[in-house]
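Lecture notes, unit on protein representations.

Consider one protein chain, 196 amino acids long.
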Amino acid sequence: MTGPNEHIVTLRDGSKALIRPIRADDKDALTRGLARLSPESRYRRFLRPVTSLNERELKYLTEIDYTNHFAWMAVNPDDPADGWGVARYVRDPKDPEVAEAAVAVVDDHQHNGIGAYLLQFLTASAIANGIHTFRAWVLGDNVEILRPLERLGASRKADHGVLKVEVELNADFEGTPVQEALRAVARGEFLPEPGA
């Protein structure tokens, strides 16, 4: 059984994932998830070598306001402490219609559709919160993320070996699991239950 802000999705291999907003009690799941990322995946996500997250970083990544900073998690529906991926945006305070976005999926669950679902849910939340553009910094050789972004019409600009990528948000979610999430965000029903 899922809660009001939780959505079961079917992955490419027929298995299921639970997509839900990140919560303050997800610090351990993030720590375990980071350990399941290869050094290359961690470098692609953070653009620097990262081996662990400190308490301040974990608090920043999990204790969010769901408007200016929003994150969705994909977890094992049979073991919600088993995190498989995260997508987040952080609004640019100087340009409130733009947010920096990032997606990370643990290595053993990549190429199964989790990242695509997470990005759809994140896009829906951003649009509902008045964000019109996602900005990301991507390594120039990271074709796994660059190709899908280019299909979405992303513009890119080189900056010292890192590409600054911007995508205008104008997605159509009609008939997808994201549609109900978008409605919940618009109604302000996406926040975790108190104490969760």
